[in-house]
Design brief:
- This protein is α/β, with parallel strands linked by helices.
- Among the domains are: about 150 residues, Nucleotidyltransferase, domain 5 (2-Layer Sandwich); about 110 residues, no CATH class.
- The chain is built from 17 helices and 22 strands.
- A 7-stranded mixed β-sheet has the order 16-17-15-14-20-21-22, sandwiched between helices. The chain has a 5-stranded mixed β-sheet with strand order 3-2-1-6-13.
- This is Carbohydrate kinase, FGGY-like protein.
Length: about 550
């Protein structure tokens, strides 16, 4: 009876929170899914909605159409509104705050009439090598291939006809936020993936901007690069309010009202840090999705520039070393689809999640080193390993042991391979991590990917109850931080308000797994020659 009473009280509180507009809405545009999460004042998800989408490879460019952006956003929000009504008997109309997040970096360029000049160039494109190399040398700061300034400068180098018309450049999160509020702003974490940010000022680095302006001179249509970029805001600052036009874009039914404040739009790296309370020095998180990346909050700057390591910031503006790999769990997902179809052909009615869970658990039956199997998950190029294009491969020697367990374990290892090489550089720099948190859909199956990741990084890995919610929940928390008045720093807010009672499952590195993964990684690194040959031959 007591348990039922408590459950009834929770439901009543959730219903009241939604009805009175005290919940926050977080939306994240990921690589394969747009997700919306409604979060209560206790930071617990109350409802969610989603929409699957895929990037398109058009004229050798990875892109999404802007029509697909808005179709997906509307579908995800409609799904959330339906879910809230189904679960709580009330349909949200007003909210305490909204946050928008999306995959970082890339290139969205607009003219003076706010028209898109070229199709959206996503983070996945690796065609900016000359620009990235030249800017890294010029700035003395690693400029990755996917950063917005690399895309812009590559367009300058290539004398693309749209360059004279560019008047605004932003990221996907910045674009959506702009259309919802009319404000051309960006959270500092996402902004740090457009151009280097100075942690002391929480803004674009003024000295590096001046160096860029002098180098580019008359090749851009404006005198100062900063005139093309969004203004930078930090977590807790109000970033505009939902306009009537913006409300109609999200919800054509008219249920959502205009006037809701929005927090600064962030990238998926920043929301991942929030979703795992990894914003303080010596904390880190790993996000696994279409891409995989580790974010390590630094105590001090790195001694050397490394092309494998990005320097970005937390949503509060603190310096972070980011190991970003273009290829994450997508290839594993493709294989799960193959095995799912095989199960269906045998007459099974197992759903995709069940198939995925069975395969992951089977990986624990595999040998620690994968039984001599080797896999590469490269659907696209991988800057960390110096690959311009990807060719997914499974390679084995005649004396390897081809079992289902070894096969799946090797596919999971492949998702972590390039990341491990980048993390090794941070270890050599003397960077120390006290806690590593993981999130993303791969961790919905309890214990498996988490255990293998702990072996890959040789560090305890924690997964919380919101691991599967990921960045959509993280940006909803940032919206809640805004709604709370942001009277404390972000780290304190997360520790004392959001994660005070969080239940974490911590996996310690198993010595046998650590040794097995190290052996596998040695083969992986040596076998990169095979992957390079495949890109040349196929």
């Amino acid at each position: 009876m007591v348990q039922q009473h408590d459950e009834d009280a929770r439901r009543a509180a959730a219903r009241e929170s939604i009805a009175q507009g005290r919940a926050t809405l977080g939306i994240e545009l990921g690589s394969t899914r747009i997700k919306a999460v409604l979060v209560g004042e206790d930071h617990v998800p109350l409802a969610s909605g989603g929409h699957a989408w895929e990037n398109q490879y058009v004229d050798r460019t990875w892109t999404y159409s802007l029509d697909a952006v808005w179709e997906g956003l509307r579908a995800a929000v409609a799904d959330l509104l339906d879910d809230a009504e189904r679960r709580h008997g009330v349909r949200p109309t007003s909210l305490a705050a909204i946050g928008v997040s999306a995959m970082m970096h890339g290139y969205l360029a607009f003219d003076a009439d706010d028209e898109l000049l070229v199709p959206f160039r996503t983070w996945r494109n690796t065609s900016t090598g000359p620009a990235a190399a030249e800017l890294t040398e010029l700035l003395g700061y690693n400029v990755p291939l996917r950063w917005s300034v690399a895309h812009l400068y590559q367009a300058v180098l290539d004398a693309e006809p749209h360059v004279p018309d560019v008047r605004f450049v932003t990221t996907l999160a910045g674009y959506v936020h702009w259309r919802l509020t009319g404000r051309r702003v960006l959270g500092v974490g996402d902004a740090s993936g457009m151009f280097p940010v100075d942690p002391a000022t929480r803004d674009y680095d003024a000295d590096l901007l001046a160096r860029f302006d002098a180098h580019v001179a008359d090749r851009l249509p404006v005198e100062h690069l900063a005139d093309l970029l969004p203004d930078v805001l930090v977590a807790g600052q109000e970033a505009g309010t939902l306009t009537a036009e913006g409300a109609a874009l999200l919800d054509p039914s008219g249920a959502l009202r205009a006037g809701t404040p929005l927090c600064p739009p962030e990238g998926d790296a920043g929301t991942g840090m929030v979703a795992t309370a990894s914003v303080a020095p010596r904390t880190a998180n790993i996000s696994v999705g279409t891409s995989i990346f580790a974010m390590v909050v630094l105590e001090q700057p790195l001694a050397t520039v490394h092309h494998e390591i990005d320097l970005v910031t937390t949503p509060a503006g603190d310096l972070v070393a980011m190991v970003h790999c273009n290829n994450g769990a997508s290839e594993l997902g493709e294989w799960a689809g193959v095995f799912g179809r095989f199960a269906t052909a045998l007459g099974s009615d197992a759903g995709a999640d069940e198939v995925f869970g069975v395969l992951l658990r089977e990986a624990l039956e595999g040998e620690a080193d994968g039984g001599g199997l080797l896999a590469y998950n490269n659907l696209s190029g991988e800057p960390v390993t110096g690959l311009d294009e990807g060719r997914p491969l499974v390679v084995r020697t005649p004396d390897s042991r081809l079992t289902l367990g070894n096969f799946v374990r090797t596919q999971v290892y492949a998702a972590f391979g390039a990341l491990s090489l980048g993390m090794r550089i941070l270890t050599a720099e003397g960077v120390e991590v006290d806690a590593m948190f993981a999130h993303g859909g791969l961790f919905r199956t309890a214990g498996v990917a988490q255990r293998l990741l702990a072996a890959a990084v040789d560090t305890p890995v924690a997964v919380g109850r919101t691991a599967g919610e990921g960045g959509a929940w993280g940006i909803a928390v940032l919206a809640g931080y805004l709604a709370s008045g942001a009277t404390t720093d972000l780290g304190t807010y997360l520790t004392e308000q959001v994660f005070a009672d969080a239940e974490l499952d911590v996996a310690q590195p198993d010595p046998a797994d650590v040794a097995g993964y190290a052996a596998w990684l040695g083969r992986y690194e040596a076998g990169l020659a095979v992957e390079r040959a495949a890109t040349e031959a196929l």
